[in-house]
Specification:
The structure is a homodimer. In chain A, about 35% of the residues lie in helices and about 10% in strands. Chain A is built from 22 helices and 16 strands. Chain A has helices at about 1-15, 35-45, 55-70, 95-100, 135-150, 200-210, 230-245, 260-265, 275-290, 315-330, 355-360, 420-425, 440-445, 475-485, 490-500, 505-530, 560-565, 585-595, 605, 620-645, 655-685, 700-705, and strands at about 45-50, 75-80, 85-90, 115-120, 125-130, 160, 165-170, 215-220, 250-255, 295-300, 335-340, 370-375, 400-405, 455-460, 570, 610. Chain A has an eight-stranded parallel barrel with strand order 7-8-9-10-11-12-13-14. In chain A, helix 3 runs parallel beside helix 5 (about 135-150), helix 9 (about 275-290) crosses helix 10 and helix 16 runs antiparallel to helix 20 (about 620-645). The two termini of chain A are about 45 Å apart. The interface between A and B is large, with 65 and 66 residues.
Amino acid sequence: MKRLFLILIVSLIFFSSHAEDGYRLWLRYDKINNPVKLESYQKLITDFIIDGESPTLLLARKELEAGLKGLLEQDITHASNKETASLMLTKFSSPRIKQLKLNINPDHISAEGFSIVTTTVNKNKSIMIVAHSDVGLLYGTFHFLKLIQTQSDIDNISFETSPKIKHRILNHWDNLDRTVERGYAGFSLWDWHKLPDYIDPRYHDYARANASIGINGTVLTNVNANAQILTEQYLEKVAALANIFRPYGIKVYLTARFSAPVEIGKLTTADPLDTEVRQWWKNKIDEIYQHVPDFGGFVVKANSEGQPGPQNYKRNHADGANMLAEALAPHNGIVMWRAFVYDNEVPIDRVKQAQNEFKPLDGSFKSNVLVQVKNGPLDFQPREPFHPLFGAMPKTPLIMEFQITQEYLGFATHLVYLAPLFKECLDSDTYTKGKGSTVSKVIDGSLDNHTLTGIAGVANIGNDRNWTGHIFGQSNWYAFGRLAWDHQLTSEQIAEEWIRMTLSNEASIVDKLKKMMMGSREIAVQYMTPLGLHHIMGWNHHYGPGPWIKDKPRADWTSVYYHQAEQNGIGFNRTTTGSNALEQYSKPVQEIYGSLEKCPEEFLLWFHHVKWDHKMKSGRTLWDELCLKYYQGADSVRWMKNEWNSLQGKIDEERFNHVNGFLNIQHKEALLWRNSCVLYFQTFSKKEIPEGLEKPDKPLAYYEALEFPFAPGIKPRW
Amino acid sequence: MKRLFLILIVSLIFFSSHAEDGYRLWLRYDKINNPVKLESYQKLITDFIIDGESPTLLLARKELEAGLKGLLEQDITHASNKETASLMLTKFSSPRIKQLKLNINPDHISAEGFSIVTTTVNKNKSIMIVAHSDVGLLYGTFHFLKLIQTQSDIDNISFETSPKIKHRILNHWDNLDRTVERGYAGFSLWDWHKLPDYIDPRYHDYARANASIGINGTVLTNVNANAQILTEQYLEKVAALANIFRPYGIKVYLTARFSAPVEIGKLTTADPLDTEVRQWWKNKIDEIYQHVPDFGGFVVKANSEGQPGPQNYKRNHADGANMLAEALAPHNGIVMWRAFVYDNEVPIDRVKQAQNEFKPLDGSFKSNVLVQVKNGPLDFQPREPFHPLFGAMPKTPLIMEFQITQEYLGFATHLVYLAPLFKECLDSDTYTKGKGSTVSKVIDGSLDNHTLTGIAGVANIGNDRNWTGHIFGQSNWYAFGRLAWDHQLTSEQIAEEWIRMTLSNEASIVDKLKKMMMGSREIAVQYMTPLGLHHIMGWNHHYGPGPWIKDKPRADWTSVYYHQAEQNGIGFNRTTTGSNALEQYSKPVQEIYGSLEKCPEEFLLWFHHVKWDHKMKSGRTLWDELCLKYYQGADSVRWMKNEWNSLQGKIDEERFNHVNGFLNIQHKEALLWRNSCVLYFQTFSKKEIPEGLEKPDKPLAYYEALEFPFAPGIKPRW
């Protein structure tokens, strides 16, 4: 019977031909299911005009044709020979704009921005999408279609927007053999072997999805770089991708392996002050631009985790970055030099190194260099305080590096909506120029008057049919793009847009899903690393709990280094009595975090070593609170499961089953986290699990013995 | 303009939503486009009955419902409450059959076979699908749907069929990290990390496709095995897959790493005669059957290419195989012990080793052991003579191992239809029991009276959306399944079925594509390894030409070992004056191949070292003939390109472009092969390229310098 039932389900799935396999992302364009709205849209939009011709405008036209046809189920024609139409795309510089007197100031709109306004032409209402550039019009097209997808009111639009940040970039940690470091959605989209001759249609869909959310750059290769990508053979392949991405407004970037002059250039050194080395890079960069005339530039990971760098030659990061920047400058290329560094000597506190190495270099970088800084000082944990470099290098533009892929957040199977994590960092106040000196103001250049600005997200995209492994992982790609464009958007706004475009426009469903998404990151923190705990994941692969990890090649690759649990207490003392990493922040921040009383409890064990019986704000002891958090986290995953289950029949079966299956895994793994961590920390606290909480069903030894030798996302090691 | 044109093409592709991305394989069920045929089918098939209930029969029902609805565009109902219907599926044992007097002898149909006959019930015509088993009915269902898909006449059917071979198995060389050894269609379908909790809907589609062509077994893991697959953790994952595959009639098999008792069992030896080792395997196998009650058994690669085996303990292959067979026998499991062996000492002629090691063991294997023999004595070359073990071990059932994935045949981008290669081997006469002792009779058990029979194909399937990388690669999966069922089918028949189901039923298109497919294997032989040349591919990855490969860790891993080119001539002398590998064949075969005159020229350089000025049947010298073959091969790829191009507009744009792109790559690479090999062999022959043939556009050094460090299909080596 059970088998028969299984088969029944199965058959239902497989005969659906996987129409709802998630491939369409948020660009579905299914018919508007609200008849009133549908009719009003149908009346309003009957034809359109695009002034001008270009590959990018052709994309806008095709998008409008396909989008409106799908959404409105009527053919909307491109009225090229008509004088006006119900929808018109044109540039500020066009004769059409000179005739109309629109209430938009072109100077308020940047090169990539756009305006959408309702106006009256010959007594007929027209919606105008206006921009300075073709890509601005493409962005406006996607925005307009979104208004309809989300069933917004479009009767009288008056909207303008420009990106707050110039370079909005995905970082792909993709290797040339198509494995993806920290990738959990299958393997690399880039089928290097078949390039440049064979163009997978999916490359276009990738670019289109990015364009729809304003992403304008993509770094094709892993920061742990391979110099082969810079050879002629591979540059031809890179050029093929760049040609596809160009009309979508997307520039291609590569990672530069610092030792490339030795590895593929036959030089004996990669010393950045060596004349031959500098000439080699200049030639190489000129060669790249012959293949890709609008090549964006390099991301460089140097002198970090074994990667070569200028320090190998007793030079500093600025020496390295400037050498590349100088050769890129004539072509308008940029260097994004990563601040995520740690050298071969194990430090007292690893989180201090970036600031120690980079702050002294402030002011010594060329003008086309950005220093790329992770959101937090450690490494993409479920929660970290903001990185102290933000605000600390006013003379240097800093580019934010977020991680969209869930390296430390349950891989692809955990539903964790990351916008709140991104926002928490962006909204953090560095106080470096007084109150209100938020990280976002550092990043968008407004705090220190930089015009070169950037934000990077480590992509969660692979060749899985649904792109991101988890369908909800798509929301993180989406949210990154939206926040990169406008960091003042709220997480709720973005979630709502995404839900409406991707899953449902029905208010009760939108509300339910929004609550799930908005809660999901805090839930993950609770079942993984509550109260400021960090980096206690499984060794190397970072999958599942591993608070017991110790005795590894480096102390700062172990968990015990970070949680510092012992019989009296737990937590990493980063105050003046400890590593004093705190001193890297501005005084007001030090005062908050440095005080056991004022420190927000979510960061407590990040900054303080705290006694097990420390009284928390709740009145509970630290031990009891810690246990409670773990149990709350796991319980909340059950809540998410129930919420999702209540949508059965309201979401198509294929996506319902997909998410349901993943939530089952998430719940199982949340229990694994809870039981492992509570039992492990109990060996130090020697205290009972608080009353009323169910006891773990297995002893600690069981959890410690679990091994996951083929967890995805790491380079296979033979 | 060029860019604009590119974009135009692009847009056309991406707005089609990839309906024709190849995912549907040959099970498309699009509406019959011939109105006359359509009407006759619609009249004939209005309802159906399936007697009985089971997961497998439910699949048959769903397949009929979806298939007939798609093909005939009318709802065909399952008439469960009616006495008769226009289509009825029932078993020979059913009351219904006892009533009807059908002209079928149940004894002629084997357990998996089926019969389809038109009969008259109550004066109404009915088509009956009759079998002994549920899976027989499922196979009959697919066959019946195929008749309609291929627009066959179904007015009066009288058809019966039973598989000639019992075990029809795919071998997946899939690693637990999802890389696939010699896989060119992306990565492994098996997402081990998410199993057993998450069931990718694609697992069902995989099983369904296999069932549609009669494949009844799948080996999930690489023959270069990892013992982890035998741990509890992984057996749960294996069980999840087995549960999905079971209703489709597909058994799951694994590869057994011989040293598993040491690696995961904590024993100090894996000696097959050691009591503890034997007990360990017995326990392990009992454990497997607790997870998978119908587990099929093991494939073992032992003492070959560094894999451990019984010889490590001075035991022989029979000792190893029998130990496993004994433990599997109570559960009806089998062992497929591979004869592809070579040890650490480099032999005079590697092709001799399998026979040297295995022939003496004939008669010493347990009754549930098959020895798995590759089609040829070397390693899946574009052309090899049949393996001399066929016919040489009459007391031992041999299972054929074909390679469907194109390791030595251009990877996924070359259009090479492999049925002619498979058939060439199956139809070869071993003469071991007189004329007519074909390889197929060895394999199907009829020559030596074996009832345990098998055929294995190394799968070309990966997670590429179209399953096999190249859409035409699907035809090789299809052809393997069809020949495994019935090796007497012709390559043309199979090609025609596949074309009609997959691409078109229009006669002129069918003819054109059939000619291309039928010619394609010979064309590949010509531009790669004409006249009996072999194993001159690029080193390790086997991509592209590498006739110059020498000085590698083993002589038999080089090309010069195999082609033996020198100033006087070329070819491997395997006659009595050379390695005498020829002696491994029966006398009549020796007489043919051993004679420079009688030896078919397609095997000439396989068996003989031949002078450059040797006069060929054409009257040309060997050198001229060799050049001509290379040029003919490359020219013929251009011919294929032109043939395909003539179909533009007749094949949907997405698949047209896909194949067109791949043919461009194939042509480029055929020229690479031609130029490399002709220039390289010219350094020995010192003769001119015959008049009228265009000269290679680059010097030999250029071709020799090409490197492909990330060619797919090999384990990455860090």
